Batch of 2 targets.
Target 1
Amino acid sequence: MNIYKVLPDLKNDRQMRLWYQGLRKQWSAADIDWKKGQRISNKSFKDNLAKVLTPVLTGEQSALYSVSGLIPVLGHRSEVEGQFYLTTWAVDEARHTELFARYYHRLDREPLSIRKFPAGYLFQSRIISKEPAEWLTGVLVSESLAQIISHEFRELDLDPVLSEICEGILEDEARHLGFNHVYMSDRFKDLFQKDEKDAQHFAQHLEKRRKYVLEGASPILKALEKECEIIGLDQEKIISEVDRMTKKRLEKSVQAGFKASEGETIPEEELVVPVGV
Ligand SMILES: [Fe+2]
Ligand SMILES: [Fe+2]
């Protein structure tokens, strides 16, 4: 049975702010100028790019499924503000899926089939959980990976349309990672207020989960080693960046929750973990 709050109090201001941002910052694939001339003319380069973009497209699609799946989970916990925000997150992932599907049309190529690319699907299965904090820890890895890859593609600037797509996605990902932090720090604030030892144990449990999900990411890039090199992506750098950033981000959410339980706040600029620093 679903649990509804007859009158939600909507008191979580930070989550409400992200919900408004999510609503206001919407855009669509129709805003992209798809007629811009293609810079990639080499046929085999296109083949390789299509292979490398396979985990990107499947990642967007699975993000759409998993975010949509979490909306009823937060409903059962009567976390209405978070539910509101997740509806915009799902729209974002639907848009990303459309963008990459249309980009394949532009390339006139197809992604690798499931049979040829099991690593991508195995990685996604590690992320899913019915416990929101576990799920968000897994998602922290996949979202940070998406952020770094979009960042790398924007820097490579292979094709003006791909660069424009990545620019827009980077803004969306910053919001997703923002919600990840806000939700997790709220959760840890409650946990620390209830029992400090339990909160510490839960933080250790999530750190193990982060590593478990991350272990699933390396085989994806390994499977595309040759193609990544041709395209200009340094896979070892990408994985070590994801490791560094997700570890820091999880730690900062726990720390922020602990401080909040003592009535203190960490300044926003200290919470930012930028790409490539
Ligand atoms: Fe996405
Ligand atoms: Fe995302």
Target 2
Amino acid sequence: MSQDYRLPYKDDLGFCNIIFSAIGGEGANMAAKLLFKLGVEMFDLDGGYDAKYGSEKKGTPTDVSVRFCDYGTPVRSAGPTTQPHFLVAFREFLIRPLSLNRGLQANATVIVNSTKSPEEVRDILQLNSGTVICLDATDIAAKTHSRLNMPMMAMLCYELKFDPEKVKEKVAKQWPKVAQANLAAFDAAVAQSKRATFKDDGKYPLVSFTEHRDERIGYLNMPEGGAIDATRFSTIGKNNRLSGTGFFPKFEQASCITCGMCMTVCSDPGSLKWVDGKMTGIDENYCKGCMRCVAICPSHKKGKALQFPCPEAEALTTGKKV
Ligand code: SF4
Ligand code: SF4
């Protein structure tokens, strides 16, 4: 435990508030849980943790709230924060539809996965004041064979001034099989980030937190299908690759007998491209690489239409040794 650690922000109740915004399956929840564990076990902090779960299958937005306070601070409120000091946005394209500037405190720190400049992101977010840090976490994750959550979490830990060696030790212990990839992503994040700090120059006001909906949801006005509101956000047309394993099945059209079995097991049926009643291939933007379709695709005299692309993909999804 560290007696020397000081939180960079505190609200009136003594909390430093953090919001992670991501799409289901991108590991925001895992990263936030690990962050919370780190804060409690290694930096002598206390606090609260709340997660909303987004559907990985449907690519639904999710958010996770972490509230840190010094150990011994009386906890006088519960639930997710509505006044973040830190916003960690895994996807820049979520900022507008989800109005992620709602509730952000003055002089907040915003970490965004984006290839844009901090100035451009400030305008997208309509940030009153604070520091915007941009990093191309998608590229870092792809190049290091890690997940999106690693570079994003690395950047947040850096801004929280958590001892990086302690953080890396915990990350390596938590996911030993991918420790090398995760640590590479960790190091690349801080090195490749761009930042700018903005004063309250009158360009954008502080925006208080309000729920998206002005009216209560009931059976008369709930969205079709009940649970997923696609009117504000949809993953259609967007690259969702990083929520998968990074491997995609190999498809041999000549061997396909159009049995449709792959459709019955697919984690995200949008990944299977069917045209005029025929299976034509895999959409890598949506495929999670779970290989369930490979497992169920029948072998017959023409062969097997869906196959493992490489021994590593087979090892990852079946546990078989390479
Ligand atoms: S690997 Fe197959 S079953 Fe899994 S998401 Fe991709 S297409 Fe669907
Ligand atoms: S399970 Fe295999 S053979 Fe059957 S439709 Fe899918 S790809 Fe074709």
